[in-house]
Amino acid sequence: MKKIIITLDGYSSCGKSTLAKQMARALNYVFIDSGAMYRAITLYFIAHAIDYTNDSAVQEALKQINLAFDYNISSGSSDILLNGRNVENEIREMRVSNLVSDVAANQYVREFGVAQQQQMGLQKGIVMDGRDIGTTVFPNAELKIFVTADPAIRVARRYLELSAKNPGISKEEVQANLAMRDEIDSTREFSPLRKADDAVVLDNSHLTREEQLKTALQWVNDKINSLAVL
Ligand code: DC
Known about the structure:
With 230 residues, the chain is α/β, with parallel strands linked by helices. Helices cover 50% and strands 17% of the residues. It starts with a strand and ends with a helix.
C-alpha cells in the first residue's frame, strides 16, 4: 500500500499526540512528536542557562544539541533522547512547559527543528504532530489534519493528565499555561500555528478515542484510494 505523509497540527492539549500515536500504530507508520524536540531544546537551554533572546548564544547552543528518538516497547511509541539521554519524562515538567513556546519562537531554533523534521519525512510512512507541520515542514503532505477541541475540555484533559504526576498543580495554572502557549504559538513571526488551507478539521471535543481514530483512518483510506486512481 502506498505510504504517505500525515500531518496533525493544532493548539496545545487537543489530543494531537494521542491521535497521531493511534494512527501510526494502526498504519504501521513512524510517529514523530515534533513538540518533544522543542521541549528537549528548552530543557537544554534551562540546564545551560541559555538566553533564548540572544541569537548568537542560541546558535552556539544548538551546535551542542543532538536529538534522536528511541522506540520504547512498553509505551509503544518513541522516547526522545537529548545528547543520548532519555528525557521523555523531564520534558513534560511545568518548568519546560512554561518556557517552550518562547524558545520555539526563536528563528534559529525553528530552522534547526524544521530541518531535522523534514529529514525524518524523506521515507514517507510518517505521522507527525505539531503546530507548523502542514504549513512549513511538509507543505506537500498528502493528508493534513487540523485538530481542535473546546478550550474548557482541553484544560480538563490536561489537568487530569498532569495532576497524576504533579499533585500540587492547580487547574488555573494549567489553564494559564495553555492560554499563554496558544497565544505565543499562533502570533509568533516564524511559522506560526495556523490551519493549512488544505487541512481537514477534526473537532474531537465530544469524540471518544475510538471515534476520532475511525474518522482519521477513513480520511487516510480515501486519500490513498484517490492517489491510486490518479
Ligand atoms: O505539542 P507540545 O505541547 O508538546 O509542544 C510544545 C511546544 O513546542 C508548543 O507550545 C509550541 C512548540 N512547538 C512548535 O513551535 N512547533 C511544533 N511543530 C511543535 C511544537
